[in-house]
User: Which sequence fits this backbone?
């Protein structure tokens, strides 16, 4: 087990050491090969327009992953032209790894099989760090940098310091990975781990599903981190190999945060920052006009199982619209096959096909002036859901479902009693 | 690299955690084009006067974690295109910091940005991290040489063109 290794080296430094074939230490700048380059319909077109000016081929089309996930389906002619351009780009460059209209890139990339433990993954999206759940060094970059990666297949990375987050014990009923991340945000804010690697382990991890673990990697960027990693037998091997190599500056894991999962409670981030998190029972029971379960943070199968437990046999409040968007076609199909989808349809939810949904305020669920949304997504910055005069609260999928039924923010545990 | 700030240039003080939805609201990511003015629309939420009173040469002074959130490079390019000569902040989010140098927007981490005076000329030397004004001299962490070279060369794209030997005008 990962947690049995007494690390002399962080997972991030171990991955990058393996990548460049020598022991690297935090602070060092290394140039390394990229294994997967991800882009999508929002920042892919500007990237490829700039890339075209170079007049060179894509370094390796089989290492590029393209998604159409935000403007899904196109709502106007500009979006339609944008999506058509990216489709044409894929054809022109022979890029076969495509997740078009299949859900948020971060989830479809996890399902693609392209990401291996120890891979270096970069994407033009800050939530690229999601792929850290599979033990890859995965992080967001800008479009200009992606142009360079598409041409060269390489980029520079500063080796980050590592902070180990040990998750012990088990979560109580009605409390989920999302609540733990929100409590970390309440405690550490959004910049404590800037430039650092967050590395999650401990017995609590062993008991967690992949879907739950993914929330920690996904929201590592909200905590400011460069990557959010989970170990694996392969990474443990890297740690043994490179941790045994002495270095002059001999730095390993610089800090450790211990979390007792059994002490966690349902959390909620109030407007307008994810770090404005507090126990949901301390949050004003404000009326919500929109509730959203979906996105690369809260749209996986387990999320819908947790929400359905609350919605089953209940109706969404007539003062609230509940928007449900699976994070991939695979999630969507599984929900259709086993009847989970019916729970949401019967409860009166608006069920959409896989996409990023209203998370980024670009599509399908923009808020009106003065409206309040509770969301299972990752950010509640002012204007995030398309309107600076609206407010967004963040919580677990279960808490979002509970709010949709109550028409106001409520502790989801109130809905878990036997009826 | 020396950056001179005019005596009359305003210092827009924006506080901590200025995020990418403020710096470039998602609703302005309209695909066909990007507009630097969108940045001012977003910044109005923090500073209502900025949309009308901002002038090229004005600088941004902020607290911790400037540019947090999305990877959208527009957050940096919009400030560059508005002719903001530099952003001075206590700290920057990782992706914004990287984007800024890649697209040619100078930024400097400064432990005490609040002590920058509201008026008077400012001289900033990125290579030494020293900020000089008539009333105060601030010592900040120096910007690494390879990032200054990136700025002086016009950003990553220009460097890439050189590296690919396709010439600067392709």
Assistant:
């Amino acid at each position: 087990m990962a947690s049995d290794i007494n690390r002399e080296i962080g997972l991030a430094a171990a991955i990058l050491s393996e990548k460049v074939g020598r022991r690297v230490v935090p602070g060092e700048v290394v140039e390394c090969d990229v294994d997967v380059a991800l882009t999508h319909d929002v920042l892919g077109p500007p990237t490829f327009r700039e890339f075209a000016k170079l007049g060179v081929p894509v370094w390796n089309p089989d290492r590029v992953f393209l998604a159409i996930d935000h403007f899904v389906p196109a709502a106007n002619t500009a979006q339609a032209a944008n999506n058509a351009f990216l489709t044409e780009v894929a054809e022109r460059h022979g890029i076969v790894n495509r997740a078009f209209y299949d859900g948020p890139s971060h989830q479809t990339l996890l399902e693609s099989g392209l990401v291996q433990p120890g891979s270096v993954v970069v994407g033009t999206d800050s939530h690229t760090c999601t792929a850290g759940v599979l033990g890859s060094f995965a992080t967001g970059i800008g479009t200009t940098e992606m142009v360079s990666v598409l041409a060269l297949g390489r980029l520079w990375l500063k080796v980050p310091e590592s902070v180990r987050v040990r998750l012990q014990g088990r979560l109580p009923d009605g409390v989920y990975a999302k609540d733990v991340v929100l409590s970390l945000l309440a405690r550490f804010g959004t910049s404590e781990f800037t430039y650092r690697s967050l590395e999650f382990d401990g017995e609590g991890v062993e008991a967690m599903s992949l879907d739950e673990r993914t929330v920690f990697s996904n929201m590592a960027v909200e905590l400011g981190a460069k990557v959010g990693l989970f170990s694996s037998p392969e990474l443990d091997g890297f740690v043994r190999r490179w941790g045994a190599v002495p270095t002059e500056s001999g730095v390993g894991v610089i800090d450790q945060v211990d979390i007792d999962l059994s002490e966690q409670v349902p959390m909620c981030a109030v407007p307008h920052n994810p770090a404005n998190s507090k126990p949901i029972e301390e949050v004003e029971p404000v009326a919500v006009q929109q509730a959203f379960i979906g996105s690369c943070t809260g749209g996986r199968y387990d999320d819908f199982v947790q929400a359905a437990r609350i919605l089953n046999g209940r109706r969404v409040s007539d003062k609230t619209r509940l928007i449900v968007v699976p994070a991939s076609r695979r999630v969507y199909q599984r929900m259709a096959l086993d009847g989970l989808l019916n729970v949401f349809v019967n409860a009166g939810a608006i069920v959409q096909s896989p996409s990023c949904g209203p998370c980024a305020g670009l599509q399908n669920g923009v808020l009106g002036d003065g409206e309040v949304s509770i969301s299972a997504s990752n950010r509640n910055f002012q204007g995030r859901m398309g309107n600076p005069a609206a407010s967004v609260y963040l919580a677990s999928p279960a808490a979002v479902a509970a709010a949709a039924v109550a028409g106001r923010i409520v502790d989801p545990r109130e809905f878990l009693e036997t009826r | 690299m020396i950056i001179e700030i005019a005596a009359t240039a305003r210092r827009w003080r924006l506080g901590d955690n200025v995020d990418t939805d403020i710096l470039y609201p998602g609703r302005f990511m309209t695909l066909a084009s990007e507009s630097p003015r969108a940045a001012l629309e977003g910044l109005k939420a923090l500073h209502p006067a900025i949309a009308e009173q901002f002038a090229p040469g004005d600088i941004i002074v902020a607290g911790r974690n400037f540019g947090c959130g999305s990877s959208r490079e527009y957050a940096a390019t919009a400030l560059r295109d508005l002719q903001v000569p530099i952003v001075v902040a206590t700290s920057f989010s990782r992706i914004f910091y990287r984007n800024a140098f890649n697209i040619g927007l100078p930024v400097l981490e400064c432990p005490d940005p609040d002590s920058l005076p509201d008026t008077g000329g400012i001289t900033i030397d990125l290579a030494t991290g020293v900020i000089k004004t008539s009333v105060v001299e601030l010592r900040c962490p120096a910007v690494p040489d390879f990032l200054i070279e990136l700025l002086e060369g016009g950003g990553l794209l220009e460097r890439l063109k050189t590296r690919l030997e396709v010439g600067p005008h392709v």
About this structure: Strands of chain B lie at 2-5, 11-13, 59-62, 87-89, 107-109, 122-125, 130-132, 137-139. Chain B touches chain A at residues 17, 19-22, 25-27, 29-32, 34, 42, 45, 64-65, 68-73, 76, 91-95, 98-99, 102-103, 146, 155-157, 160-161, 163-164, 166, 170 (CB under 8 Å).
